[in-house]
Amino acid sequence: VSRAEADWLVGINATRALTCKYNAQLSCGRVQTPTLAMIAKREEKIRSFIPESYYGMTAKGQNIMLTWQDQKSKSYRSFDKEKMTGLMKKLDEQKAVVEEIKKTPKKTYAPLLYDLTELQREANQRFGYSAKETLNIMQRLYENHKVLTYPRTDSRYLSKDIVPTIKDRLEACGTGPYRKLAMTAKKKDLSGKLAFVNDAKVSDHHAIIPTVELAEFELSKLRDHEQKILFLIAVHTVEAMEEDHIFMETEVEVRCQDEIFKAKGKVVKQIGWKLFEECFKNEDGFAIENPADVGKDSIPQVEVNQKFYNVSAAKTEHFTAPPKPYSEDTLLAAMETAGNKEFEEDTEKKGLGTPATRAGIIEKLIASRYAVRKGKQILPTEDGKVLIEILPDFLKSASMTAEWENQLLEMEQGRMVPDQFMAGIEKLLSMMLNHCDSLPEEETRRFQKKESMGTCPVCGSLVYEGKKNFYCGNRECNFCLWKENKYLQSMEKDMDARMAAELLKNGSVRVKDLYSRKKDMYFEADLHMDADEKGRVTFSLSFPEKKPTKKHKRK
């Protein structure tokens, strides 16, 4: 209830206040506005970015490629062109010696299961689906086909009571492209400790996995995009059950003329869950490749004190790159982690919105024309950038909105009372309305893109043409000239732009083709306008004097 009330109060008050103040159709929301602010801020960083040249150096000794490293900063780059040119000349064709070889065992842990946001991100990466498209596909798999568990979840874990059913669920994937996954799952021993099993991390709904009903389901009934999403979930479920990916990282350190060069490589000792990444590297997107060739060392074998003669040194030039525009994938990740730096590590809930609402927020920004899709990128429109520019910081603060999400979770768990949360919302509304009241008139004309027709005779503000009238730009002023008004329509005439401009400039305008029903004739007259202090307009006519005609004498 508090979430709904807060969203409604912030959305309707901010939207109406700004729309009235700026005389433009604007839209704000508790979550959509800080999301738009993130998109606009990223665009501004890209627009203002100035690339800089930087330099690196490589050295080839026999069959090993080495990279120069600065001994003080430990960086592999330098912005000093002259220094790097001098080093290249100094080191080229000199002797180098292997000083140290470090071998470090490392591992990449198997991933947790999917929650909605993580699945939307990966579907965007692999298939280019928008967050909304992915959610719609999952909803059909859940509601219509019954082959998927509840999709709108924010948990990546299962409770202990689900574990005994996992094999049955994956063995249900026993036909078509799922066959190898089912065979792999059947061999697994699930009696030990599993990283994705944690009762404390499951609240209303557990992570997304296939259902047992998949065993009786005909996969041919699924559309192509539905099969892709279901397969993605099946693959990921098996990955989560697999062993860790273990490899040995080798770092070779070489000294040449007191300069340090390094080379890195790795040898895979246990491919583990990474085997299933191959599913998405094949043309059909399903088959699992044989990893027989995996495990070869990516750098040649060398020994300490080994010497390289006549090394070939080369300077390389590069340019700093601007940040990348948000894609649906990276924007969802940014929304999920917004405000992280402002929270303690053990804070449960962080980010903008919920997994179930984030896709809708992105779609709403696009529907409102504040953001636009360009390929996989999500960019702010000109209207979106201007909206963020005019909004006060407290309305577009991602950290404050993330804090509200955390408070809503605390309320759900009984650690916060609704009145405390709503008091913060009411304080924000007061700040927002006071901000609108304090805006200078010049600022409120920001969205007036139309050319003015003239100056209002009542308050002195600019007058603009609307669909049915010529209206004063000051919303507190009632002055307007209706295009269809009773006075002129009695003479079968409508107010046009030329007439309005002349009336605003001179208070009168010469009008032709006025019609008199009484005399059944057209005539010409001067139309006069008078406006009182309340903006009420009255009209009157005067008739120009007829010029005397010259009489010609008869011959």
Features:
seven-stranded antiparallel sheet; four-stranded antiparallel sheet; 555 residues; alpha+beta
In short:
The chain is built from 16 helices and 16 strands. It has helices spanning 2-22, 32-47, 81-91, 116-127, 131-143, 166-171, 179-186, 224-241, 328-337, 355-367, 382-390, 398-412, 418-437, 441-444, 486-489, 497-506; strands at 53-61, 64-69, 96-108, 245-256, 259-270, 307-308, 312-319, 371-374, 377-380, 454-455, 462-465, 469-472, 480-482, 508-516, 521-531, 537-542. The termini are far apart.
Task: Give the low-pLDDT segments.
Answer: 549-555
Level of helix content?
25-40%
Rg for CA atoms: 36 Å
How many distinct helices? 16
Strand composition percent: 15-25%
The rounded distance between the terminal residues' Cα atoms is 101 Å
Overall geometric form: extended
Largest sheet, strands/sense/barrel: 7 strands, antiparallel
